[in-house]
Design a protein that fits this description.
Helix content: 25-40%
Low-confidence stretches: 39-45
Largest sheet: 6 strands, mixed
Distance between the termini: 13 Å
Oligomer: single chain
């Protein structure tokens, strides 16, 4: 149930920390201990099931609404409608399912039930990076986080476009789901949504400590 906000000015090392934790950058010196052991460039590596990374600029699928939720994994046939609704409802995006149903309806037998419209043949291929606003993309990323349900989540300023009410609700939902969030941001207002604060002051290069941890 604990969470950590890593705060500091531009250039203090927040994003560098995220990239090192996710093995996007090599460690020059020192040691990093994390669940799952060393990360390999492989989705099956144990660390991928333990640590999940959400960047400030979300990644988006070019495919069905199911593909957008399960990205980068593509599930044959996609997720069932009710499961899509359950996940998207958590982030106030359930209306996207209705919009996809409405788009599929003219292609189907109007006498059939709406549930029959929603299948692998009727889910449209969509460029979700163009379809969704930045706020919707960030909300969808959190939906992906809940779907994956890792032990730890590294959030690299990935809620900057969200409204305060939704942002608070998403952090609370992550805590209730048992996901420990490590959030990197320049927004001190997020302190109240985390149990600990790590402030990077940028003084390490000057021979100083470089950080301060408070609870």
């Amino acid at each position: 149930g604990q969470s950590l906000l890593v705060c500091g000015h531009a250039g203090s090392g927040k994003s560098a920390m995220a990239r090192v934790l996710c093995s996007l950058w090599a460690v020059g010196a020192g040691q990093i201990i994390r669940p799952g052991g060393p990360a390999a460039a492989d989705e099956s590596a144990p660390v991928r099931n333990e640590v999940y990374y959400l960047p400030a600029r979300p990644c988006n699928a070019h495919g069905s609404i199911s593909d957008q939720l399960t990205y980068p994994t593509v599930l044959p046939g996609g997720l069932p409608e009710q499961e899509l609704r359950r996940w998207l409802r958590l982030v106030d995006l359930e209306h996207l399912v209705d919009e996809e149903l409405a788009a599929a309806a003219p292609l189907q037998n109007l006498a059939a039930s709406p549930a029959a419209w929603f299948g692998p043949q009727t889910q449209r291929v969509v460029d979700w990076g163009k379809r969704l606003s930045l706020a919707e993309q960030q909300a969808f990323s959190f939906c992906r986080l809940f779907f994956r349900h890792p032990t730890f989540a590294i959030l690299d300023d990935c809620t900057s476009a969200l409204g305060r009410a939704l942002e608070r609700r998403l952090f609370e939902a992550a805590r209730e789901a048992g996901i420990a969030c490590i959030t990197l941001s320049r927004r001190p207002m997020l302190t109240e949504l985390h149990s600990h604060l790590l402030h990077l002051n940028g003084k390490a290069a000057e021979g100083g400590r470089g950080w301060e941890l408070t609870a």
